[in-house]
Amino acid sequence: MDLFQYDFMLRALVGALVIGLAAPALGIYLVQRRLALIGDGIGHVALTGVGAGLLLNRSPVLVAVITATLGAIAIELVRARGRTSGDLALALLFYGGIAGGVLLVGLSDASSASLNSYLFGSLTTTSPGDLITILVLGVAILVAMLALRPVLFAVCHDEEYARVSGLPVRALNLLLAVTTAVTVTIAMRAVGVLLISALMVVPVATAQQVTRGFRSTMTAAMALGLFAAGAGVWVAATADTAPGASVVLLAIGSFLVVALVAAGWRALRRRARPAGTPAVEPHEHEVVLR
Question: What is the pLDDT averaged over residues 142-149?
Fold first, then answer.
């Protein structure tokens, strides 16, 4: 029986594909800035928003968007002022966010099943309204990351040079922080706040194994994210597994396969190189924008 004949499965597939494209498009900038784990930190802050929404009988997603956005802006301002290091700022997000979320959820009357749907995703329960929200915000994130690629690349690669060049560095940093918060919250339905960071980072890390330029890495990462999202929903539908976990495990599996193939290819090239020929290996993290 074709499970995709049902509307809820089609909504799940479309929502996952949009997030699979948008998350790596944003994630490549976070990886470039060595903030690969910021999605986890903001996800914990979003959990506080979910708890507040459940406690106040308001939309948990809407409250989570507002809470995560405010948290992302605050942490970016703290980081920019240099009063605390980036890893310490992320630690504050981790511990404060999850502690606040657990406290507020405990005070509310929410069931454990309701909480788990935000922690680990519940893609098959995506409503038409949820899908519209994912589509609108996901496309907006994707367009912003692609349209502003040159300036965002400049800021992520060398912030001081970008500032000297006259770019609005603080505004661009805040844009990245806000889009990260929005991506985390719209992806709660797909992979959950505890797994979204993997969809931002793992496709980028996979693409870096076989690409050289920033543009080619971004394109490959988006393709890998699209594959992991679509295949993950299909596996979840046919094997009756959790969609979020299926998507993330497929993304990690793709990384392992590509890393092994790339390592084998480099070993074959070294063996085939004539004796005395100097080794010229491409830098997998080369940041030339082309």
Answer: 92
